[in-house]
Amino acid sequence: MPIENVRAFFSNYDLADRIQEFDTSLATAEMSANALGCELKQIAKTLSFLLKKQDKAILIVASGDKKVDNKKFKAHFNERPLMVPAESAMNVIGHEVGAICPFVINDGVEVYLDDSIKRVDTVFIACGSTSAIIELSLEELETYSGFLGWVDVCKD
């Protein structure tokens, strides 16, 4: 199960004890913010896209209160955004929709961090389960996500 894989991943860095599990679903940014009692912008949501022309999947970690701007996305990636279908997420990314995170993902999936998360010092991000989350500093997120770069693809 992905949560065990993510827990094992963070155990390698002595961070597994920071994973919080809830009895309620954290499948959306709004649900996570409500459960944690924090602002929506403190939730880092991981969005999954297919780049058809490049034949690959990418993840964009963005602020929970932002939406992807189609024009900005196309300007950066040279094609329009196409979400990974929910029924394909596990096979394509390695996590189910609502539990997608940039940790312990399938080979070849690229991770990008959106500038929208730079508005906070720490973020809460999913851990491979719809009921598990971890708080990380932006520096920790950069380190453990294996991101390729910062992008600006969300609406202002």
From TrEMBL:
It holds the Pfam family tRNA_edit. The keyword Protein biosynthesis applies. GO terms for molecular function: aminoacyl-tRNA deacylase activity. This is EBSC protein. The keyword Ribonucleoprotein does not apply. One of its GO terms (biological process) is translation. It comes from the Bacteria. Keywords: Protein biosynthesis. Residues 26-142 form the YbaK/aminoacyl-tRNA synthetase-associated domain.
